[in-house]
Amino acid sequence: MQKTNIKPRSLVQEMQESYLDYAMSVIVDRALPDARDGLKPVHRRILITFRDLKLAPGGRFRKSAKICGDVSGNYHPHGEAIVYPSMVHLAQDFKMRYPLVASQGNFGSIDGDPPAAMRYTEAKMSKLAEEMLKDLEKETVDWRDNYDNTRKEPKVLPALLPNLILNGTLGIAVGMASNIPPHNLGEIIDGLIFLIENPTCGIEHLTRYIKGPDFPTGGIIYDKEAIKNAYASGRGGVVMQAKTEIVEDKKGDFKIVVQEIPYQVNKTTLIEKIADLVKEKKIEGIRDIRDESDKDGMRMVIILKREVHPKKILNKLFKFTQLQETFHFNMLALVDGVEPKVLNLKSLLEEYLKHRKVVVRRRIEFELRKAQERSHILEGLKYALDHIDAIIKTIRDSSTRETAFQNLRKIFKFTEPQANAILDMRLSQLAGLERQKIETELKEKFAQIKELKAVLKDQARFLQVLKDELKEMKRKYADPRRTQVIPHKLGEYKEEDFIQDEEAIITLTRSGYIKRMDAQVYQTQGRGGKGVRGMKVKDQDWVEHFFSTTNLTRLLFFTHRGRVFQLKAHEIPKAMRTAKGSPIVNFLEIEQKEKITAVISLQAEIHSHDKGDEMAYKFLVMATKKGQIKKIALEELDKVRRSGMIAITLKDSDELSWVKPSTGADKVFLATKKGQAIFFKEKEIRAMGRGAAGVRGIRLSQEDEVCGMEVAYDNEDILIITENGFGKRTNTKKYRLSHRGGKGIKTAKIIARNGQIVAISALPKDGAELDLILISEKGQVIRLPYKQVPRLGRATQGVTIMKFKEKDDHVSSMTCL
């Protein structure tokens, strides 16, 4: 009977084992990234092929067809149709936070446009990809045979950067999937360094440095607690939202401008979805949608119909479209290249650090071995040069090279590498300078060997090498965060969370019209210029308060009656440069004849004096037109009611006109319209309660009144502006310190030509980055560099700073940016 190899086998068992083998093959060799270098096999093979083809970042591009052909032919036996999309993914900056492929040609778009065929496009490795391959030649990782045993490929890359968490991944295997978001390089490296220094730290410590995902498309994410929970378990959902802005145009119509969209959202599909919702009347109030995106960035404009509430439309868009999405964390990766495991944030970073420790140790051992081998040869060469006559005689007496080789080893006890090096030695090395080079190199190798051994032996020094390399990567590649993190849950946020804290200019007119503008609306001009047309004002009205601040700053408004009110800068409506603004009574509950005489922007004041922190200021110093002065603790005004509260009690017909923050140890400068000034220590004013009237600051002559008060510092300049557009600056060193309550000394020569003083300001001596803005009673504005205002003596007139377009116009107010 003929024997056969056919064996009976259960179909169920065969299917189970075969499917399990298939599943593991997909998991390990195709779908899931390695926790060490963050790459799937196809991506790793693409980078190796770049290295084989010498396609360095500073070199030339090569056709994608050539690259993909080599990847498929040498390493990845699954066809070019798989390789090319994988390479395209590595090049797309809207999918990769830090692209690993530098591309040339059409590589697709965020609109879902497919890339051009591989025969049309070109590629090479990016700078970050080069860092992933660094030290590969120094035996830092293990290698294995490729699929047909014709060459070797690395099992994992040295990965100088933590690519898995930097670029994230999306992988669908058999029975499992991975979805890791990208992060900010600077934050991740800060977290890694903290983990190296504090290996027992918890997730909550790491989240102080790693704020949350940082998507290449920007956008907004919500809820720090949800982010922490996802980091702690490796699974969880985080709400993403588009970055939007409601804008009013010149006609008074509103539009929603979308500047950034959630990660992995197709812009064209999003626009089509909005259009469908409008057609189906699920969202009413949208008149048109325009895609104004260009090479400078994304801009999608949704034009609204009149008499609709823009915020309600925006909320519906968030509800029904991909302007709001949820990113589902599933931080699954291969541990040691074989075991699929869900990792929390700390575990993921630990796996990377464990890999880097192995790589760095193997690199140092490799460099140590090479240094020892070289020093061994150099020792042989040095000995040979010291006994060169005997060496030459031995070689000349030998009949063949092999005989000479054996004689050198036998007579002089040279090792095999030393003997070969001596036989290969050129005659030029007998020169004295060449001998010196060998001795110098030998000393350097001994020093290198000593250093490398010390690093391997000392754990602290070894870890310092890791930290230094990470810090260097941060220095070279860190960039600002793109995705804004809102700490609250969606629906629990404050309006301030959506306000960008940009510089703004606030103006308030004598009759009570207020508005907020971008700081860029006024361009810098030269001294003596005529400026540009500013606000349109009514007859008998002019701009009284004009200052720079930021959108999120708390503003305190003081009235002539001594009351104080509070607003955030962003609560003031934004308006055009020539717009009149809105009545202040719409925002503050002031009485009909009550007028705002002083406004302070706490944060702006802080920046102007480089205090750095709002808590550096502890007091407010107030001054009245009749020379009274008062100091009050800042905390007394922490809870200003909507209806206002009393800040100072005034006597007779006096008015509160100036308020400045102080530290308690500053100096106070008071100036009058007729050119007198007094300079004294703030300590001469004791802190008082809100109802107090204050004390005398300066003794005024008849028909004179205070025109300005500043909290000043040593070696600052006092800027003086007069009503006819004259100005100067005088250093505080020119003013002697006196006691409060005196008549003061001359601060400017007042004549008909320059007019009385209308504004003063204490500013830094150099003021290199400051711009001065003046505004007239009739709305004329000029902006010029502060350094163009000359520094003059104390009792001088000043020079022309501003010329007026209209007769009988005068400077109304002044501010500095």
Explain how this protein is built.
By secondary structure, the protein is α+β, with helices and mostly antiparallel strands. The strands form twelve sheets. It has a four-stranded mixed sheet with strand order 14-9-8-17. The protein is built from 18 helices and 41 strands. Mean pLDDT is 86; it is low at 604-615. 38% of the residues are buried. 30% of the residues lie in helices and 25% in strands. The N and C termini lie far apart (104 Å).
Can you lay out the helices and strands and say which pair or pack?
Elements: H1 11-31, H2 41-52, E1 62-63, H3 64-74, H4 80-91, E2 101-104, E3 122-125, H5 127-133, E4 143-145, E5 152-154, H6 163-167, E6 169-172, E7 177-180, H7 185-197, H8 203-206, E8 220-222, H9 224-233, E9 235-241, E10 243-248, E11 254-260, H10 267-279, E12 286-291, E13 300-304, H11 310-320, E14 324-330, E15 332-335, E16 339-342, H12 345-386, H13 388-396, H14 401-412, H15 416-423, H16 432-457, H17 459-477, E17 484-486, E18 503-509, E19 513-518, E20 532-533, E21 543-550, E22 554-559, E23 563-568, E24 582-583, E25 596-601, H18 602-608, E26 619-624, E27 628-633, E28 645-646, E29 656-662, E30 667-672, E31 676-681, E32 695-696, E33 706-712, E34 717-722, E35 726-731, E36 745-746, E37 757-763, E38 771-776, E39 780-785, E40 799-800, E41 811-816
Parallel strand pairs: 8-17
Antiparallel strand pairs: 1-3, 2-3, 4-5, 6-7, 8-9, 9-14, 10-11, 11-13, 12-13, 15-16, 18-19, 18-21, 19-24, 20-39, 22-23, 22-25, 23-28, 26-27, 26-29, 27-32, 30-31, 30-33, 31-36, 34-35, 34-37, 35-40, 38-39, 38-41
Helix pairs in contact: 2-3, 3-4, 7-17, 12-15, 12-16, 12-17, 13-14, 14-15, 16-17
